[in-house]
Amino acid sequence: MSKALPPIVLDHPLVRHKLTRLRDHNTSTAGFRRLTRELSLLLAYEATRSLSLVPRHIEAPSGPMEGEELDGKKLCFVSILRAGNGLLDGMLDLVPSARVGHIGLRRDHETLEVSEYYFNMPSDVPGRTCIVLDPMLATGHSAAAALTRVKAAGATNPIFACLLAVPEGIAHMAELHPDVQIVTCSIDSHLDEHGYIVPGLGDAGDRLFGTR
Ligand SMILES: O=P(O)(O)OC[C@H]1O[C@H](OP(=O)(O)OP(=O)(O)O)[C@H](O)[C@@H]1O
Ligand SMILES: O=c1cc[nH]c(=O)[nH]1
Ligand SMILES: [Mg+2]
């Protein structure tokens, strides 16, 4: 089997500070949303590091110069519903021209298997770099299912960006998608008996949308 790409972990004081506030169960719904948006902007900065550039000639105030611009088609962010939507605004703050796809995946609380209830991608995915978004990489079933769909739609070199990952989810992705670069703000300790990340931040969707 091919060797999986090692995950990239953001090691920055701002990320660690904001992540601690995010994990705090006293943080309000509004605070959780704001912190998720801020963290996703920092995540976008790292997740887009490998994008390629082409030369671009411009007239600077001091005269002509060879600058650079992003190569190829516009980026596509793919949100895994619901909680992936919490990462979208920060990503779009940094890359406003990106296209957006959505994949609805529901995790069964007993079996931890996922089922798809929605799929909507831009029509011209082939040749686009897709960054799949979900705050949580727990068992990895949701991320792996989403990556399978995004690859089938023709995405080139897809990337997976999350706030928290655990070794179990990273191993599942390494088995099924060793070519996918994972970018995360933290690798937490383990999963509990209900498939929740420890220490984690609770249920990301519920905290973002105030549903529990
Ligand atoms: O790695 P996994 O074990 O698959 O778990 C991670 C998934 O669980 C959560 O979604 P959930 O099913 O709770 O849906 P929600 O976003 O609608 O709350 C989370 O947002 C991920 O999509
Ligand atoms: O800890 C977890 C695991 C899966 N989904 C969440 O929202 N939180
Ligand atoms: Mg949830």
Name the descriptors:
binds magnesium ion; binds 1-O-pyrophosphono-5-O-phosphono-alpha-D-ribofuranose; 12 strands; nucleotide-binding; two-stranded antiparallel ribbon; UPRTase/APRTase; Uracil phosphoribosyltransferase; PRTase_dom; Rossmann fold; alpha/beta; allosteric enzyme
Describe this structure as you would to a colleague:
This protein has 212 residues and is α/β, with parallel strands linked by helices. It has a single domain (8-192), classed as Rossmann fold (3-Layer(aba) Sandwich). The protein has 6 helices and 12 strands. The chain has helices at 13-23, 29-47, 85-94, 141-152, 167-176, 204-209; strands at residues 8-9, 53-60, 63-70, 76-81, 99-107, 114-120, 129-133, 136-137, 156-165, 181-187, 190-191, 197-198. Strands 1, 4, 5, 6, 7, 8, 9 and 10 form an 8-stranded mixed sheet that branches. It has a two-stranded antiparallel sheet with strand order 2-3. 35% of the residues are buried. The model has no long low-confidence stretch (mean pLDDT 96). Magnesium ion binds at residues 83, 203, 205-206.
Small-molecule binders here are: 1-O-pyrophosphono-5-O-phosphono-alpha-D-ribofuranose, uracil, magnesium ion
What ranges have pLDDT less than 50 throughout 5 or more consecutive residues? none
Rg to the nearest angstrom?
Answer: 18 Å
> Kindly, what is the distance between the CA atoms of the first and last residues, rounded to a whole number of angstroms?
42 Å
Helix content: 25-40%
CATH topology: Rossmann fold
**Strand count, sense and closure of the main sheet?**
8 strands, mixed
User: How many strand segments?
Assistant: 12
Give the DSSP E fraction (strand runs of 2 or more residues). 25-35%
Mean pLDDT: 96
Q: What oligomeric state best describes the polypeptide chains here?
A: single chain
CATH-defined architecture: 3-Layer(aba) Sandwich
- The CATH class is Alpha Beta
Tally of separate domains: 1
Class per helix and strand makeup: alpha/beta
Listing every helix as H and every strand as E from the N terminus to the C terminus, the arrangement reads EHHEEEHEEEEHEHEEEH
How large is the count of helical segments? 6
Catalytic activity: UMP + diphosphate = 5-phospho-alpha-D-ribose 1-diphosphate + uracil
Organism: Gluconobacter aidae
Domain Phosphoribosyltransferase: 9-211
Keywords: Allosteric enzyme, Glycosyltransferase, GTP-binding, Magnesium, Nucleotide-binding, Transferase
